[in-house]
Design goal:
This is GreA/GreB family elongation factor. This protein is α/β, with parallel strands linked by helices. It folds into 2 domains: 52 residues; 64 residues, Chitinase A, domain 3 (Roll). It is 30% helix and 26% strand. It contains 3 helices and 7 strands, in the order βααββββαββ. The strands form 2 sheets. A 5-stranded mixed beta sheet has the order 5-4-3-7-6. Strands 1-2 form a two-stranded parallel sheet. A hairpin with a 2-residue loop joins β6 and β7.
């Protein structure tokens, strides 16, 4: 048999395991975001005790990610001047539809639930806006009308 068809072990052909990527920039979190990090760590630590040898490495990788996020977390509150920004819920009218967008940290973001990371394009457009402002977005000068701004409730 040719050497090209021999395989020493299955391990040499497995895909390499990489760390979970850490989002660039500061790790801003709301109070709820900080609690989310603590809950993820507690869940992973509990799971690690019962994990099989195969699953331990993935759990440890996730645990390293969340521990790093806990270490780098900067709890941030809504702007004191009442403008839109990190930690606020902004009610807007876009394309004839009204929606309330929460501007949160990267780990708290859930675009399907209108929870956007502060670095998302729409969140960046909203940052610094006041009630009544018309904001440009997607090539239109008046695409977004800001209707209401409130600090996020925990």
């Amino acid at each position: 048999m040719s050497v090209a068809f021999r395989r020493e072990s299955d391990e040499e052909h497995l895909e390499p395991k990489f760390e979970r990527p850490i989002p660039a920039g500061p790790n801003l979190v709301t109070r709820a975001g900080k609690a989310l990090i603590e809950q993820e760590i507690a869940t992973l630590e509990a799971t690690l005790a019962d994990a099989s040898a195969d699953g331990m490495e993935a759990i440890r990788r996730d645990l390293r990610y969340w521990q790093t996020r806990r270490t780098t977390a900067v709890e941030t509150v809504a702007p004191a001047d009442g403008s839109a920004g990190f930690g606020t819920a902004v009610t807007v009218r876009m394309g004839g539809r009204t929606r309330t967008i929460a501007i949160v940290g990267d780990d708290e973001a859930d675009p399907n639930a209108d929870r956007l990371a502060f670095g998302a394009p729409l969140a960046r457009v909203l940052a610094g806006a006041d009630v009544g402002d018309l904001l440009p977005f997607a090539g239109r000068d008046d695409a977004i009308e800001v209707l209401e701004i409130a600090p996020l409730a925990d």
